[in-house]
Amino acid sequence: MPYSPLTPDILAQLVRIAGPKNVLTDPERMEPYSHDEVTDPAYHHLPEAVVFVETADQAAAVIGLANEYHFPVVPRGAGTGLACGAVPIYGGVVLSLEKMNRILEINEAALYAVVEPGVRTADLQKEVEAKGLFYAGDPCSGDSCFIGGNIATNAGGNRAVKYGTTRNQVYAVEVVNPTGKIVRLGARLQKQSTGYCLDQLIIGSEGTLGIITQATLKLLPKPQHKLDLLAIFPSTEQAIGVVTQIIKAGITPTCVEFMDNITIKSVEKYLHETLQDSDSGNYLIVEVEGTSEDDMDDKAVLLDEICTANGASSVLVADSARIWQARKAFAEAVRAESLIVCKEDVVVPVDQEPQLIDAILALAKKYNLITRIASHAGDGNIHLNILKNPDLTYEAWQEHVDANQQELYTLIYKLGGRLSGEHGIGSKRKVLMEEFTNPDELEMMRAVKKALDPNNILNPGKIFDVE
Ligand SMILES: Cc1cc2nc3c(=O)[nH]c(=O)nc-3n(C[C@H](O)[C@H](O)[C@H](O)COP(=O)(O)OP(=O)(O)OC[C@H]3O[C@@H](n4cnc5c(N)ncnc54)[C@H](O)[C@@H]3O)c2cc1C
After folding, report:
1. Sign of CA dihedral 229, 230, 231, 235
2. Which of the ends of the chain has fewer CB neighbours closer than 10 A, N or C?
């Protein structure tokens, strides 16, 4: 990819834009910016400089320079991504938004918040909850990831069954576009039919179409009552199969999360604790919200009946703090077992999920894969982690992974699914994206990228290549 290296003159101009304390070039200090949460060093790449911006004007000035001298700019939030989206695969500048971390407004009367992109998701949740309000976005990485990163990846997470993904929480964004203009897209409206929906185009574009420098987010009143039930199923298929029954019964759960037994054991080992009824099978965690204690009781009874009829060996009121700690520790528990992991983030229509889980298990047997599985079962989104088999060389293990992917993705697309439910494509899944996406759809995506970023300077080499 023909990009210009960052010359001493360009570096001096970057220092003039952001200030000396906000430009790093020392390889040791830049190392954390050479990767996201993908721990396999094969996917790491050092930038030539890291620039911390404190204002949208500074971000715009960096983009102006990048267009003038033709170097790539990679926006970065907290670096918790799992697709290498924030990795500077062609060098250039990593543009960090971590210093733009202010909550600018929480409007209690009109139920919205205005935030900078570097606000930690959990910090926003806590701030609004202290005012009796609620921000519905809730990725499992919420203690670390940023709102800007959530918007750029259209993060999903636990509450998407009821509240949708991050794109459903956003009224408007301010972005620095790839030619360096600061534009506001979207509006604080319940509806509009006023041209293309460019705010929604930015959401989920993984930093390839704009740098998000501010967001106006939707807030809700904090739910007054909630309950977590833990249903234990001896069979994986029965656990996943009950999801459509729950939805058909008219219950709108906030979360429906699945963990298979080997994953429960892995998390227990990582947390050094014994989880509820962990020897009996696979977990389905169902969270429901309600208007009163009676409403909660009615929902609990109905859920118990549905899960038991579908083969659950027990249905318990969960210890909420512990069960969510366990669910959220999934990624760390896997990391403690192996740094070399293939993390699949596949998604199918919810009614096709039992078929997918069957196929995943059959293929794991066929290709001798060591798997850990958790899923946002209520969304049809399965996280299949394939750990490196210690008996195989890296290359041999990768061959098994590749063969598995070919069969798995062929099935997923037949079932009407897609290759990423929430983590995005980044550079890690780019080849598969190009292989499995309808060519006409891919061509439309490329046309958008070329039109908005004619010099291909904003996060190039992500999602797909632009020839
Ligand atoms: C333990 C763990 C649990 C996770 N759980 C979930 C989960 O439940 N649901 C889920 O969806 N994801 C999950 N993730 C993945 C990840 O946390 C999310 O994708 C998150 O939204 C990334 O935010 P970030 O701030 O870390 O972004 P980064 O990793 O820094 O960047 C991700 C992408 O967004 C772009 N980007 C970041 N900030 C901006 C910006 N301001 N403007 C433009 N582009 C930008 C980057 O270029 C990159 O392409 C998990 C990850 C881990 C490690």
Report:
1. positive
2. C
The verdict on domain 8-99 having CATH code 3.30.43.10 is yes
> Does residue 207 have its Cβ closer than 6 Å to ligand 1?
yes
Architecture of the 338-435 domain = 2-Layer Sandwich (3.30)
- Asked whether 422 lines ligand 1 (CB < 6 A), one says yes
Question: Torsion over CA of 234, 240, 246 and 247, rounded to 10 degrees?
Answer: 180
Measured in Å, residue 292 CA sits from the centre of ligand 1 at 35
For residue 221, which of 123, 289, 170, 172 has the smallest C-alpha distance? Answer: 289
Question: Which CATH number applies to 225-330?
Answer: 3.30.70.2190
Cβ of 121 below 6 Å from ligand 1: no
Q: Is 331 in the pocket of ligand 1 (CB under 6 A)?
A: yes
In angstroms, what is the span from residue 75 Cα to ligand 1's centroid? 11
| Residue type at position 341 | V
Q: Which CATH architecture has domain 103-221?
A: 2-Layer Sandwich (3.30)
| 320-377 pLDDT per residue, tens | 999 999 999 999 999 999 999 999 999 999 999 999 999 999 999 999 999 999 999 9
